[in-house]
Write a structure and sequence with these properties.
Layout: H1 4-8, E1 25-27, E2 30-34, E3 38-43, H2 57-62, E4 71-72, E5 81-83, E6 92-94, E7 99-101, E8 109-111, E9 115-119, E10 124-128, H3 129-136, E11 142-144, E12 153-157, E13 160-164
């Protein structure tokens, strides 16, 4: 079974103005997590509470084009890391009463935005590599690229499924 920590990695950051997606939530028979670009759905998890302010994820899933053929997620490039501008690469910032961990980075480093193109039946669709990297860590993850560069594509994994939005340029 997928862990709470695995689910939480798909939640929106605390800094986002969308306070209703900071934590996973349950509704009816499913539990969900989203950052606004990727959403996952698993069978209802007993440790994930209801949230009446959360998005209507069931409607999102039902209104999305059905998945086509699932394929393996392609090999992803290694992340390109740069020093965090908030903590200047130290991973810590001044806090009260002592130094505290920087919430903007991972030990002083931030992954630069990378994109990858996956060929659908008709169109090539561009995705954020960092989101695909998180999805690829789920057990037996596969993606079904929707042939629409503005609609979400499906992905599935052993414990559930989800949707990922393409990047627009």
């Amino acid at each position: 079974m997928i862990t709470i920590d695995q689910i939480k990695q798909f939640c929106g950051s605390i800094d986002t103005k969308r306070h209703n997606i900071h934590l996973p939530w349950s509704r009816e028979e499913y539990s969900y997590a989203t950052n606004g670009h990727v959403i996952i759905r698993i069978p209802r998890h007993p440790e994930i509470n209801e949230n009446p302010d959360a998005p209507d994820a069931a409607k999102l899933f039902s209104n999305t084009l059905p998945p086509g053929e699932y394929i393996d997620i392609p090999q992803l490039p290694e992340p390109i890391l740069s020093n965090c501008s908030v903590c200047r690469g130290t991973g810590r910032i001044a806090g009260e009463p002592n130094w505290i961990e920087c919430k903007e980075c991972d030990n002083g480093k931030i992954a630069e935005l990378q994109k990858i193109t996956i060929q659908g039946v008709i169109f090539e669709v561009i995705f954020n590599v960092e989101y695909l990297r998180k999805i690829s860590k789920l057990p037996n993850a596969k993606i079904a690229v929707v042939n629409n560069t503005e609609k979400p594509s499906w992905f599935k994994f052993d414990d559930g499924d989800g949707l990922i939005m393409p990047m627009r340029f």
